[in-house]
Every structure is written in structure tokens, then in C-alpha cells.
Amino acid sequence: MKPGYLFCAALASAVVAGCAAAPVQQPATPAFEPVAMVAAIRAAGNEGTELVVTPLGDSGVADLRAQARDQLEAGAVEDAAASLDQALAVTPNDPGLLQERAELAVLLRDLEGAEAFAREAIRAGSGVGPHCRRHWETVHQVALARAGGDPTMAAGASEAAARRDACTVAPPPRY
User: Fold this and answer.
1) N or C: which end of the chain has fewer CB within 10 A?
2) Crossing angle for the helix pair 130-146 and 157-166, nearest 10 degrees?
């Protein structure tokens, strides 16, 4: 063989070897326990002593919410999310509905979706009360999950916790 051919053969095999390099690593989804995360979110809504006024809602939305609850109890989280998505198509600015959907996103391990739904609920809801605390606790929990549970590494977690705590309003004095 001629030397030029050896060089070309070596170059070709180097190129082929380069194509067979290890695949590009996708960023790992942080490890977190979705059920425990949702339990913490829901517990944040039970910490206050405020009076909560819930407006009357659309009966079709109430049916879809009930359907989603039944589906969730049966373990069909994706179906429950689809039912809430249908309800959100009817009432897209319902902060309670947005929060429920955020919690289902957590159960589906969709941290981006959970935060997006919670932030939309924050924009649509009031700045006080149990719903407010659940919205901000969702943002807080997502930040912790992204940081692998390390609060010192969780960007935005301390701000979300402070905002969550600011949602609690002391009751008026009673005489």
C-alpha cells in the first residue's frame, strides 16, 4: 500500500471512531418524592386561621374537578390532569383550579409545569390566605427539588418561603 492510502485509511477510521463517541448526557431530572412534595404543599394551606371565602363556580367545572379527584384516587394521574385541563379551558383564571393542576404536575414529575401553574395561580389569586400559601409552597418545593433538596443551593427557595409566610394574615382582635 502507498503511504497516502494508509494516511487516508487512518483518517477515515479516526472519523468513524469519533462518530461512535459516547452519547451526549441529558440533564438529569432531580430526585424528589412527588407524593411527599404534594403533602407539604397541601399542609402549607392548612397552617392559617383565616376566614376563607370560596365563590360559587361553574357546575361543569365542579363535575370535572370531581372526575379528576376520582381519577387521582384510582391512580390515573394523567387522566386527572387531562380533566383539570378541560376545566381550565372553561375557567382559565381560577387560582384553586390552577393550584390543583400544579399539584398534579408535581405528581407527574413535571417541575416546570408545576411552577408555571403555581405562578399563574399567584397572578390570578389573592395575596393572602391558604391558597396563597399553597401557591408559594409549590414554588418553594420546586426550587428545593431542582437543587436536590439542598436549601442552600435552591435559587429562589428562600424568597418563595418568605412570600409563603407573608400570605398568613393575623385575625382581627376580638373583644
Assistant:
1) C
2) 170
